[in-house]
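Incident review: delayed structure delivery

Summary: a single-chain prediction request sat in the queue longer than the usual turnaround. Root cause was a stuck worker, restarted by the on-call engineer. No data loss occurred. The affected request and its eventual output are reproduced below so the record is complete for anyone auditing the incident later.

Affected input:
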Amino acid sequence: LIHSNLDDGFGAQFHDLANLCGWAMIERYIIEDLAGASLSHCFGNLFSDPTLRMIFALAMDEINDKNSVGSMIYGNTIDFSMDYDRNYGALSSFLLGDMMLQLYKPTGHAVSPIPITEAARIPSADEIIQVHTISQMLEEKAKHLYPFINWERILTKKEVLVTGGQIFFERVMNGLDDIGIDTKHPGELLLALKGIGAARLEEYFGVGKKDANAMRGRIPLRPTDIVQTINMKQDETCKKIDNIEESLEGVKIVVASTDVHEFGKEIVKSVVMRAGAKVFDLGCSVLTEEVAETIVETESDIILLSTFNGIALSYAEELLKVLERYDLKTPILMGGLLNENQEGSELPVDVSDKLKDLGVVCCSTADKVIDDIKNALIK
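Output delivered after worker restart:
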């Protein structure tokens, strides 16, 4: 049994849920039809809307032709912040939705409560126990709410995703076949898909209507919650910045994420682009060597990094060594979760002071990024 989390890694980079559904079909085709194994899909990290979690879960169940047992529906983490009181609300909303879905259609997926400290650091054992205690109470209440859900409406929206996913699947397979990729060879097919990347697959084969002004040139059939949140955060952030238009005109910026998470990267990218900067987006899980090579190739002025997985200090140290080897003194701005496990600590601790000692500019919030860039360039 092969496990795949659609919200962590390659699948998380799709902006249209219909295309993500199609990608899930591609994964099933590679694993089940070509490799002869079974596949279990996990998702939920990037789903904020409780009803959308139900819709997508039913879509994933429909394409599960071999009835592979589910793994888990992961908790919504994009609504989590440093405000723990609000996190309790987000926790309750997604748990209720996931529980009612399992009452309607038991797919075998475990319901996964997420500790309210998730956005700040790795949770402690006590905090994990706490959310499971909360979830037991919510399970009792979900049984009362479940009979009043309009499942016909949810099933109708599920069909839209499945139909769009099938179109995306067929377009991708036909497109790869046209350029000589052996779509019957699992290794060759997987390498080709990974090489092309989610963004270009969506741009070339996506089911959304073409629009030059839309992200990736298409209007999503059903935008992911992460895309809607990014757009909302971008608008909120830009409203807080005085005279944003053309404030970074002529500035060239390399943008990247140190790990698989791109939420923070996409927000700051959209903000600096609104300010007129020219952006070279390297995507997720970017190697330090790739950052340095891009600086040389593009003659960029600054590096903007988003990090989440507790590797802030080690990544910065490695990048500085690589830049020194290339004889580059390009300023580095880093934002996100600036923490890492240190000797003697059981949980990741804040490493902002150590980053500053290295000369890295620590960006606390997206609305400060333009000022931070200007100050860094002056120095």
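Verification: The chain is about 50% helix and 10% strand.
Action items: add queue-age alerting; document worker restart procedure.
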